[in-house]
Amino acid sequence: MADGNITKDVMYEAVAPDDFVSMLDLDRYGNRCTAFDKIISATHDHFWDPLDRKYIDFDEPFDLENVAMVPDRHVMALRVPYVSDFFSDPKARIAFINHMQLWGFSSILHGEQGALNLSASLCHVLYDQGAQEYAANQTREEARHVTAFARYIKSRWGRPTPCGAALQALLIEIIEAPEVYKKIVGMQMLVEGLAMGAFANGYRYNNDPVAKKLFQLVMTDEAFHHKFGKIWADRTVPMMSQAERNIVEDWSAHCFQSLMFNQAGPTQQAAIYERFSLDPQRVLDGMIEMRANRDPSRRMKGETNAFRVLIKTLLAGHIITGRTRGFYAAYVDMDELAAEGAVMPGEAIAQEGIAYLQAINFKERAERGAAGLMAAE
Does residue 259 contact residue 310 with C-beta atoms inside 8 Å? Predict the structure, then answer.
């Protein structure tokens, strides 16, 4: 089996990516874990097709010129006086807000492409048939997310923005990592955890009805992807040695910092500032000053704050201990987070979405069945 995976449960055993011979082992075909069966079979309950208008219609219009997609407070740069004063004209302000949304949706698109490639890479290395089938199932679902976000961006802006340097570096690092634990923690827990928070936030505050529907549909899939990482954590983390736990905790903190910098690092959006004739250095200086003057006791609030959800994901997965608690406590109230329990923000939104999909899919199956009976007659 491949080295460095920190495997504590047989269903997460893996081989090297180029070791196809091991997949032909006769004893392997007689063994299959059942831990992922419910997740796999549930895919029928949340099937949707981004190319079928009965699920979502990307041709529905939205007035990008006159309507801001999100409130001002959701654009961090507008908290800087230099930027806020610069956009005194309402239409210019709306244009800036909506272009920042393009950058955000493009980051999601690139993240979904990373999830697609990572899921496919797991198909090559996971030894257990059940785990491999789950990875294949997720690959299919991530592929429709790429299609959906690509079509949404095309319908609203025509073309996405390039992947931010920090996000691109992290995605490459996760996908190319030979260690399976890095793939699972990095993508299935952190990136998926961040996505659940971001999508729940978008569903709640985005003014575009198509965006709201897209977020909800994707969440019906992501909620299950998130569970895959939680199962890994429940079966793996308690069995780790202290040295192994330290490795996983440090990797998690590294991924968290990379994702935080991609989202909140002003240098990542320098091209956008230049596009709107803003001085990127003045924006950067303003953000540094804003953070320096911020109340040190201030913490991330709101159940759908994406990075708060990400930290909650790690806490629920037992990956935050006394050793790293202080690092995350700089961002959230850890006691408050622990008291909230294991229910993840966005799960209720996802369940409503699944009910919506079940109604559509049940009706379609019933019509197909009736058509089949008529043809038989």
Answer: yes
Distance of CA 194 to the CA centre of its chain: 5
Global model pTM greater than 0.70 = yes
Q: What is the pLDDT of residue 83?
A: 95
- The average confidence (pLDDT) of the chain is 88
Q: Give the containing element (helix H, strand E) for 97.
A: helix 90-125
Q: Which of 290, 260, 307 is nearest to 164 (CA)?
A: 260
Q: Would the CA dihedral through 363, 368, 372, 374 be positive or negative?
A: positive
Q: Residue 287, Cα to own-chain centre: how many angstroms?
A: 26
Are 77 and 266 contacting, i.e. CB atoms less than 8 angstroms apart? yes
From the list 9, 83, 45, the residue with the least C-alpha distance to 276 is: 83
| Cα distance between residue 168 and residue 183, in whole Å | 15
The β-bridge partners of 126 are 14
Residues 220, 223, 225, 227, CA torsion sign? negative
| Cα–Cα dist 139/316, whole Å | 25
Decide if pLDDT at 215 tops 90.
yes
- Return the number of other C-beta atoms located less than 10 Å from residue 179's C-beta: 19
| Mean of pLDDT values over 55-78 | 95
Percent of the chain scoring above 70 in pLDDT: 91
Q: What is the pLDDT, as a whole number, of residue 299?
A: 57
pLDDT (0 to 100) of residue 218? 95
Tokens coding 282? 């003045």
Closest CA to 180 of 259, 227, 108, 248: 248
> In 3D, which of 144, 134, 238 has the Cα closest to residue 188?
134
Q: Both tokens of residue 319? A: 């990956």
SS (H, E, C) 256-297: HHHHHHHHHCHHHHHHHHHHCCCCHHHHHHHHHHHHHCCCCC
CA pair distance 340, 209, nearest whole angstrom: 30
Burial 23-47 (b: 16+ CB within 10 A, else e): beeeeeeeeebebbeebbeebeebb
